[in-house]
Amino acid sequence: MQASDSFRSRRPPSPSGARQTLTTGLPAAVPRFPQPRYVEEGTYPPQQMSADEKLAAVRQDHNAMPATFGRPSGAAGLGGRLGGGLGRISSGEWKILIAVLLVACSIRLFRISKPNSVVFDEVHFGKFAGKYIRTRYYVDVHPPLAKLLLTLAAWIGGFTGEFDFKEIGMAYPDSVPYVLMRMVPAVLGVLLVPITYLTLRALDCSASTSLLGSILIIFENGLVTQSRHILLDSPLLFFTGLSVMFWVMFCNEDKRPQHKAPTVHGAKGVVISGPFSRIWWTYLLLTGLSLGAVVSCKWVGLFTIATIGASTIKQLWALLGDLHIPASLWMRHFIARAICLIAVPLLFYMAMFEIHFSILRNSGDGDAFMSSEFQHTLQGKEMHDTYADVAIGSTVTIRHVNTQGGYLHSHPHNYPGGSKQQQITLYPHIDSNNDWLIVPALDPSHSNTTDPMKTLTYLKPGSVVRFRHIKTGKHLHSHDVRPPVSEVDFQQEVSGYGFEGFEGDANDNFIIELDEEGGGDDGGRKGNGRGWGGDRESGRRVRTLRSILKFRHQLTGCYLFSHKVKLPDWAYEQQEVTCNKNAVRMNSLWYIETNENPLLPVDAEKVNYKLPGFFGKFLELQKVMWQTNAGLTSRHAYDSRPHHWPFLRRGINFWVQNHRHIYLIGNPFTWWLSSISVLLYIGVRGLLVLREKRGYKDFHHSAVVKYDQLIGFTVLGWALHYLPFFLMGRQLFLHHYFPALYFSILTFASVFDLVTSTMSPRRRIQVAAVIMALSIWTFAHFSPLAYGNPWTKKHCMSAKWLKTWDFSCYDYHDDYSQYRITTSAPAGEVVHTHAIPASPSAAGVNPAVKPVENLPEPEVLTKAIQKEKLEPGRDVFEAQPIDDLNERLKANLAMTGANAPVDPKEKEKLKELEKSKAEASKNAQKEAEELEGKVGPLLPSELAKVGERVEKKVSSADTKVEEHVEEKPLGKIGEKSEAGSVDPTTVQSVEKKEATDKPE
Amino acid sequence: MSTGARRRGIRLPQPDSPGNGSGPDGLSPRSLTPDPTHDSTVGDEDPRSVSRSFPAASGPPEPEYIHNIACVAITAIAFALRFYKINHPDQVVFDEVHFGKFAAYYILREYYFDVHPPFAKLLLGLAGWFVGFDGRFEFEAIGDSYSQHHVPYVGMRAMPAVFGSLTVPVVYQIMKECGFPVVICTFTAALIALDNGHIVQTRLILLDAALIFFIALSLYAYIRFRKVRYSEFSRAWWGWMVATGVFLACSLGCKMVGLFTFFTIGTAVLVDLWDILDIRKKYPMDVVLKHFFARALGLIVVPFIVYSSFFWVHFKVLSHSGTGDSFMSPEFQESLSGNELLMKSHEIRYYDTVTLKHKDTKVFLHSHKERYPLKYKDGRISSQGQQVTGYPHEDLNNQWQVIPSKAIPETGRGRVVRHNDAVQLLHISTQSYLLTHDVASPTMPTNQEVTTIAKEDARSRYNETLFTIDIINGHPGQPWKSKASHFRLVHVPTKVSIWTHPKALPEWAFKQQEVNGNKNSEERTATWFVDDIVIPAEDEDLFSREGGPKEKVVKKMNFFRKYAELQLLALQHNAGLTASHPYASGPINWPFLLSGISFWTNNEKLQQIYMVGNVFGWWTCVVALSVFTGIIGADLLARRRGIQPIPEFVRNRLWNSTGFFFIAWAFHYFPFFLMNRQLFLHHYLPAHLCSVLVTGAVFNFIAGESINYPISVPGPGMRRMPTARSDVGMKAVIAAVLYAIPYLAMFFFLAPLTYGTPGLNGDQVNRRLLLPSWTLHFAGKATTS
Questions:
Q1: Mutate which of A977, A983, A985, A990 to disrupt the B interface (most B C-beta within 10 Å)?
Q2: Radius of gyration (C-alpha) of chain B in whole angstroms
Q3: Is B130 at the interface with chain A, CB within 8 A?
Q4: What does each C-alpha distance from A117 to A166, A501, A774, B77, B106 come to in angstroms?
Q5: Rounded to an integer, what distance in angstroms lies between the CA atom of residue A953 and that of residue B80?
Q6: Which pLDDT score, from 0 to 100, does residue B662 have?
Q7: CA–CA dist A779, A225 (Å, integer)
Q8: CA distance B727 to chain A (A)
Q9: What domains can be seen in chain A, in order of their start residue?
Q10: How much is the pLDDT for A575?
């Protein structure tokens, strides 16, 4: 029986002995390895076969002969029906698989409800789930599938979206079904285990190898940690594994000779195995669907697509070289793959976004990332139709085209410097301070006798007008004064000027110009002089929402301009507006959003935004995601670079509380072993290539060919999931390596299969058992970091195998008994606050794209006073308490119980602080009152206080800042390029820039 | 099999010139799949069966003198175009600002720092010295007049112009050596000779002329080397190989772009060695190794020596202190005569009062009475200690006294502060000790707050006021010196180092720079130095306590250490050049000439120099590159299906010779996509040269069915080969002439922008705005309104 277990006689099957040790209660009489079914199918002669194939087929049949007498096993039928190379899985193995699944469950789900507070990026993904449930629009760098799954769980659990997951360590209230939400990644994490097993089996590895592979996946600390929290990597990994499994099965099916069912009554025979059979199509389609799912979890899924794509190209290339295959058949192969592996994933991906858009119907905090057109598709952001024609006497709001369309804004506060006139800013929210009245230019000769405000005069290119701020009555004004922040020669301050009874001066006049090229790349609103949205009139006169305008200052010729530079506190950090003589075109474009004119007849033509359809929205969001992603370049305290990953140089701090710690770190044993096996393959393969060149016939050995293809595939997957990260400038984390890790573990399993292929079954399972035991031991050793379990300093220190692992052992107690005291602390109370920043990979953190948002606006201010926190935001992780402090700590504990702030170092300070706290909160209250009472910012008082010496310092500091204003006049004569060299000052500034990039 | 071509030539002279097989081998399906049909394919390949596909030789080869006449003629044109009005403008143009200045520094022998290697700049300096430039002109700004300052700038510009002109015959010879007929060679050389971009870049005091010349020369020498490959280890073989190495070193010595040429040649060499390794070539292993080591010697060791020697000369010439001092390490600076370090560095003793300056941001460690606010804006809370900040100006508040943490002798050398000593720093004006503790700094929660503690309270927190003087690269017992010692100030209990960054604190600290404790005690940017000893401890002269004012001798520093230091610095700074520039452009724009660079303008005469290539020529190159890719792709697919559309020997030339040019283009172009530094159109010029070579070859492929074959020098004892002759004939000449008409028209049309004369009025400028993305000056109002 044993001999016939496998149709490949050269490799002995998995030993039965091993299985008995692992699973109990298996009836010994059941044959382990029933004959795969397709051997029987092989009796149909394939239609086109090369000599080699025929030989192989004959050999197969020959080997299969004894097996055909085997018993008809139901289990074999299961594997056989699945096709895709799973036919070789025996019923016994299915039982092992179930056992493995149970182990996986117990490892991944163990105390999943602990900790009952927000861990690491749950901050983001929990929040997003809340936003889905409240249907508030948000923007994130990741596609929606995984987040939708999390949302589904949250929704089923009755989450209402009230909890905001604000920061790491916040305790979950009862209303948050966080356990259910964590179950999603956890269950998918568990399912990765059988996927691993089946993938390895389908790759023609032995059962013991597959068992080893799945055990390594179960006991991988990093995967365990990552899959136990509300994070996206576990779904990502699950779908990656799924894609690979389906693809491998598809390849197995593809390799089988095609044969058709016997023709019945002259009807065409149905293909029942091999290419174009139903099962072949099924696997191809499933591969496509799961590829769509991977890429809908995270864009990293593109690497999976690349892996499968490379494999497909290789397949097609081989087919192309097979001259027996006619071109038409090759085209069928090609088209089938193109449909299933390109079109299907794309459709799937788009469908996810369709769901995304249809859920997020309401305006939310992601609005500001999107174009105005997009925003108007959201409920709560709609705008009424507005009059199309702009004329003198119109009350308008003017938006900036480029910087997420803030409104031209003014408020009754003056510039502290420069002309000290009223501030003009760009403000992103609708507000009555955005209203401007268009009045005719000052006409000193008074030649025009008719009052222009009484007659309807349409605005045309070349019209000279003034803009009167309705609330304050000032005119938009510019003059030869440097603006507050961009103090360069070619920039002029823009201010609000004028007072009651004063008509203003010629510096209020602006000439209206239509932009020749339209809105450029802004949301597809190509104008080509005809305005947006195909409104032909908008190229001739000013039309609301359709014409793109430039405002040229009549006297100085500069253009009204705004850019992503924020004004300081005194202007509530709103965006700077200047008048620029060398304006970048895109930053000097404006359009009119709303328009009211009493002179217009009621039935005058009205317009509104042209709302984008699904494709418009989809493409726009992709672009925003891409930009946001590329903008994530700031450093994070726990980020790492790709070259650190394969050898696990550093982990990520997820959570610290109550002397417990969750720290993402892999199982070093598994990790190193798999990395080494990858390197080993690359080295050996290189050697083989060299040897082949010198005439050695290694590649004539069928085992070498088989394992070369097998390991080559997994190493290719590893390389494609790993190497592209080197090209990414953005912030990266250890968990970005996980998909590559999955492939490297598959590689290790395959290498193991290769190395043990000549061993006896018993020996093989023994070797596997040793490796499993080591890996389980390592897992156990580091498991307190994965589960946030109690640990002691001593154990923790002994687990610091590498100096670069920065989990902080000082947070643990000296002894386990101390944890019993701690547990009496009220659940969820934050004893340690600390500063683990969540990874900014999710949205809402990118200053480059994020517009000025929710700025305190003096008129509409409702600023809540933040509750004070008692501790300075110190970082507990790297600080190593000094010895005597430990003693103080103990004393402190004994004295107060565990409940008190445990940082004795701060204790004295705290007392002081508490004293001053009352004072401070009084101050804060006063501050709030002041603000509410619309008291302007109290800026210069400080300066006055400190006197002349200080003033000198301040101004010198200011001049320093000026030096680094990067803006250069565009179009200025012959700029020097750096090309040649650096003069020391530029180098300095470069270095300064570097310094700011350091951890923050 | 696509590799068949290569195998066929086993014992026969191969027609291909350089980069044998670099294309097909890498793409061969064999490297992906072990092909079961592999062996049989080899079997039916009889090397001798090749001859059947050869056409009869069509006529005698073109006589050598026609080649010579054409080459001389096109060279003469090149010289004429580059020297035409070379004295115009008599003003500093674009980067002459830098490179003119560097030439002046060489003449003055003052040390400077620059990211580019010195060879081309040395040549410019040499040219300046030769024509009698005294180095007294500053080249400060674009538009400064040369003639007013009596700078012999024409002589200095002549140098690049000569290189630029000589590039043209080199290109001609490359094509000729690759077996192309006269018309093709002339066509190719003309694409360089009459290119506005090349002309403008090579007639000014810039490095690119020399760079491009040596790149072309490297390619030429390597092709010659390949052609004598059958007489291996002969004198010519060695000669051309070493020449390749030397020229490579020269191009690398001009600019780091030369590295791409190294990669190009390196790839070709690897492919070549790969072939030699092939068992069917029947080379024994020791011969293979001999080949390997010969190439390592000629193409790695020789270039390294040549390249290093440029630096040796560089250091020898620049022996005086200059503008570049501050970039270098103290040891380096002390090797320059007249350097400040050399003059003013003193050992620091305990109780000296010193000022500490941050190396990168040049601010003093500063403190003043004001305290940190209790609560920051983000809600975090401080210790309310005294502020410690970075302040860029001299001030009494910058003074700190060095207090020992151990017993020291009354007098003598024991009072000198040494490496790794723990000290306290007493702030003089507030009489408080510097301290850092485990409280978050004002702006960075991850870093420690730095503050001071009053002298009287310091006893209880003594440990927290201790700092180690960690001199960078210091050895035990090394004295701590002002100016010369760069050090980190490492806090003893918490191991943070005192650090500052250019972020200004808010108003409460008068917008001074934040100082905090960086947890990474090895942080590179946490480097300080003692700017001055303000008040020596024992009121005596600094010189006398060191045993009298000694004659300061210039210290020696090993050449290799200097060399290594400079290389490292250049690399770091090159990567740091990320500031934006109005005329910087992305690589994707280059082949299509989407943007140029404004070099110089003259407002009065409406003259301007705008660096942009001959649009017609450049776009031809783009087309040629895509045609080549198409041909190669189609050939690959066809072969896979068993069809052989191109005769074997033509295909060989296409893959190996043209493929080599193509790879050269790819290597000189694509790496720029990975660079984050600011890039300019002129970075594309080397790649453009390679694309011109491809264009010539593609022209030949389209014009004729055949090629000149074989072209390699037959080795001793080899059989005669069947030969083939190129049949491009008259139709190619006619095509070339037809092509020349728009090409020349474009050249003359753009010439005013190239030569900066004559001036153009608004309309004329408008007409020359061939692409809307060009940013010419003095454009008429119609378009810019």
A1: A977
A2: 33
A3: no
A4: 11, 62, 32, 79, 67
A5: 59
A6: 96
A7: 11
A8: 34
A9: 384-522+529-608 (2.80.10.50)
A10: 86
The CA-based dihedral angle spanning residues A44, A47, A52, A54, taken in that order and rounded to the nearest 10 degrees: 30
Residue A838: pLDDT band (50, 70, 90) is low
Please state the ipTM of this predicted complex.
Answer: 0.73
B317 vs A871: CA distance, rounded Å: 60
Distance CA B30, CA B45 (A): 17
Rounded to an integer, what distance in angstroms lies between the CA atom of residue A574 and that of residue A484? Answer: 12
The domain spans of chain B are: 1-22+33-56, 64-313+587-767, 346-536
Residues A744, A674 contacting (CB under 8 angstroms): yes
Higher pLDDT pick, A941 / B691: B691
Per-residue tokens: A110: 């163990």
Cβ burial of B420 (10 Å; 0-12, 13-18, 19+) is middle
**Chain B residues within an 8 Å CB radius of A983:** 323
Say if residues B527 and B488 touch (Cβ distance below 8 Å).
yes
Query: How confident is the model over A879-904, as a mean pLDDT?
Result: 41
Task: Give the span between the Cα atoms of A82 and A283, in whole angstroms.
Answer: 10
> Which one, of A286, A294, A280, lies nearest residue A341 by Cα?
A286
Burial A901-924 (b: 16+ CB within 10 A, else e): ebbbbbeebbeebeeebeebeeeb
Question: Which residue has better confidence, B158 or B406?
Answer: B158
Question: Rounded to the nearest 5°, which phi and psi values hold at A862?
Answer: -135, 70
Distances, alpha carbon A457 to alpha carbons A394, A454, A475, A545, A608, in Å:
10, 9, 20, 19, 22
- What tokens were used for B132? 């009698």
**What residues in A contact B381, CB-CB < 8 Å?**
868-872, 913
Provide, as residue numbers in chain A, all residues whose Cβ is less than 8 Å from the Cβ of B641.
320, 323, 327
Read off the pLDDT of residues B615-652 as tens digits, 9 standing for 90 and up: 999 999 999 999 999 999 999 999 988 888 888 888 88
- CATH classification code of B346-536: 2.80.10.50
Kindly give the pairing relationship between strand A559-566 and strand B486-491. unpaired
Q: Tell me: the pLDDT tens digits for A444-482? A: 665 555 666 677 778 888 888 888 888 888 888 888 888
CB contact under 8 A, A980 and B207: yes
- Dist CA A340 CA A105 (whole Å): 33
Q: Which two tokens stand for residue B180?
A: 């192309």
Cα separation of A924 and A930, whole Å?
Answer: 10
User: Coil, strand or helix: which one is A335?
Assistant: helix
Helix (H, G, I), strand (E, B) or coil at B702: helix
Cα atoms in the 13 Å half-sphere on the side-chain side of A451: 4
Q: How many CB pairs under 8 A join A and B?
A: 246
Burial letters A570-590, b for 16+ CB under 10 A, else e: bbbebbbbbbbbbbebbbbbb
Q: Which amino acid is at B143?
A: G
**CA gap B689, B191 in Å, rounded:** 9
* B584: closest chain A residue by CA: A977
| Contact list, B441 vs chain A (CB under 8 Å) | none
Which burial class, exposed, middle or buried, applies to B195 when counting CB atoms under 10 A from its CB (0-12, 13-18, 19+)?
A: buried
Tokens of B181: 């007929």
The three state secondary structure string of A47-102 is CCCCHHHHHHHHHHHHHHHHHCCCCCCHHHHHHHHHCCCHHHCCHHHHHHHHHHHH
Residues of B in contact with A803 (CB under 8 A): none
Check if B601 contacts A (Cβ < 8 Å).
yes
Per DSSP, what are the bridge partners of residue B489? B469
Q: Considering only CA atoms, which of B298, B291, B232, B310 is closest in space to residue B265?
A: B298
Q: Residue for token digits 């507000």?
A: A431
